Amino acid sequence: MTTAPQPPKETRSFQSILVTGGAGFIGSHVIRRLLRTHPNTKVVNLDALTYAGNLANLKDVEDHAHLHFVKGDIQDRALLDKLFEAHGFDAVLHLAAESHVDRSIDEPLAFLETNILGTAALLHAAKESWTRRGCMETALFYHVSTDEVYGSLGQEGLFSETTAYDPRSPYSASKASSDHVVRAYHHTYGLPTVISNCSNNYGSHQFPEKLIPLMIRNIVDGRPLPIYGEGINIRDWLWVEDHAAAMDVILQRGWVGDTYNIGGLNEWRNIDLVHKLIDLVDSRLGRTKGHSLGLITFVKDRAGHDMRYAIDASHLASRLGWKPSVTFEEGLSHTVDWYLENASWMEEVTSGDYQQYYAKHYDKR
Ligand code: NAD
Ligand code: DAU
Fold first, then answer.
1. Which of 122, 131, 151, 301 has the most CB within a 10 Å radius?
2. Is residue 100 part of a domain?
3. Rg (CA), the chain
């Protein structure tokens, strides 16, 4: 039985952090940040290198003395026990997941396995190790989750930490389940946990199945820009570096048992965002204004498509002092430049598997 969330006695520092999913989009950003802001901490990146995980995302830090990579599955209990034993982790930053909503509609079971059973395996390994080593008081298990657990908003209102869960896709249901399992380990076993639920991230190194990098890539190549439904669904966009900064502050000062919503205070209708991207890319490539507008193609809507997500991040702001550092204009401009300057990264991550999935996915629409 646990009490209400409590602040840490002092700012935490860690000897050894296990980051899961560090070869993915957000994981690679947070690893880069941790190596900078925790110079004395060992960082072990456990990643299965699925289609979404790519060591090209960490090329600039691959030789860092404090970064270790392990290729493996978070569902592998024996591997987890071995890693806890070998590295003596005092923190887990858990990002590994199947993360793409469209894929969860096509192949839900992989999401339930990785996102629920994988999280449970990690929680169990942490509980066993920290109980045996007597470090439940100082360790931290940080679970990274999504605002999609709260369901879909109408035109008004924001998701807060007390909004009732109402997940509606296999992806969001799997993330909601994993959040519940994390809370169960906290309340039942006293495992020191913290959860954050954030909105749509954007920035460099994002796999080009997600809206922003997909659109940039297709505008550059002159390919159709598939907009689901009427393009009026709204997302709240968060700069991935601001998300990494929020995770860092939560690792250091987050209250055990607490939940933090993280958002960019930055809502856009999909169609308006795509117009913005067309303007930016066309202008960078020296094309006339409106050159790529004709590529916009309205396609069959996503099944169960959530209408609007928007985050009230005031709890994180008031308790831990975090707020977004860039405007959307700055973040998007930087993002477009990065993709234009890193065409070889795009080539590298879009493997044969991805080409096949992409063709199959859009054939069905
Ligand atoms: P991503 O798909 O880019 O990366 C996921 C990473 O997890 C990949 O490197 C992949 O190889 C790894 N992985 C997948 N299954 C694994 C397994 N069984 N064992 C070990 N590694 C495995 O995802 P992302 O966008 O970086 O998201 C990271 C986390 O943040 C996820 O938990 C996601 O639910 C959450 N999140 C993402 C967003 C977003 O906008 N991208 C928003 C809110 C929350
Ligand atoms: O809100 C947080 C979530 O944001 C994360 O938990 C997920 O991991 C992440 O994938 C993201 O989910 P979305 O489904 O919102 O992101 P996606 O980029 O797939 O889609 C953004 C919006 O754009 C959504 O309304 C669907 C629409 N869309 C997407 C694609 C890929 C299109 O209209 N066309 C497309 O081709």
1. 122
2. yes
3. 20
Q: Read off the CATH number of the domain in which 148 is found.
A: 3.40.50.720
Active site residue 148: yes
The secondary structure of 324-361 as a DSSP string is --S-HHHHHHHHHHHHHHTHHHHHHHS-HHHHHHHHHH
pTM: 0.97
Q: Are 83 and 16 in contact (CB under 8 A)?
A: no
Residue 365 confidence (pLDDT)? 43
Give, using CA atoms, the residue closest to atom 15 of ligand 1: 97
Ligand 2 pocket, residue 176 CB under 6 Å: no
Alpha carbon distance 17, 292 (integer Å): 45
Per the CB < 8 A criterion, the answer to whether 16 and 231 are in contact is no
Distance set, CA 200 to CA 70, 263, 293 (Å)? 27, 8, 24
Closest ligand (CA of 121): 1
Q: What is the atom index within ligand 1 of the atom nearest the CA of 54?
A: 9
How far, in Å, CA of 153 to CA of 105, rounded? 20
Spans of the chain, pLDDT less than 50: 365
- Residue 151 included in any domain: yes
The count of structural domains within the chain is: 1
